[in-house]
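Reading a protein record of the kind used here takes only a little practice. An example makes this concrete, so a full record is given next.
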Amino acid sequence: MVEASRRAAVRGPTFIRLLARLADADAAPDAQPLSDRLSQWIEWTQTLALSAALDGAPVVAGFGAAGTVQAEAQECARVRRMLAAAIDGDRAFAPPRAGAAIAGGHSAAAVEDAGDYPFFRQRYLVLQQTLEAGAGRLRERLRERLTVASPELARLAALDAVMERALGRRERSLLGAAPALLGRRFERLRERAQDAADGGEPDRETWLPRFRADMREALHAELDLRLQPAQGLLDALRARAND
């Protein structure tokens, strides 16, 4: 407990801080400026596209023809609800069901994975793909609206498209580390339950619900992170409408 209290607080988005807490990991503050990080992540070929996006907006007829900001805000809310429901409704979080449980009252998820982590890892990866696809489609939709809203917003849309392509591989690599960190959490909870059982086999329902809750929380935090670019585009569209 004393050692944990001395651990430096992890800075960054909620998703990063949550994973660090679940994995009981130390994360030293990164003193490297963001501009230096970006220079390492963006390939030189992408800098040409960035330069073109910053130089000016593409010529698009019919500026100001976009739909209402309210309609886009409603679409953002709908996508968020849909993706959140996909997380909460996944079979990894299925509670014990009468008539579908086996001896010991194990849930459908516990029965399917036999108490091992690979099942939950596979479900996390599937849900990550769902979140990436849903957030990506929403982001593309908002860019289309910005492209016809004004020259300034068209430039922002072009810049966002380039940044998404430039940083996409790095983003997938970083987010791909989440299942491994959750695996450490899974093993630690199981080991604690085994210790408490004095060498016997503990009932999985004494510790699996805690892990499921942690995994669900991590996925919702990742959803928030993935929707941040779309939220930024929506905010830009809203600011333009309020001018």
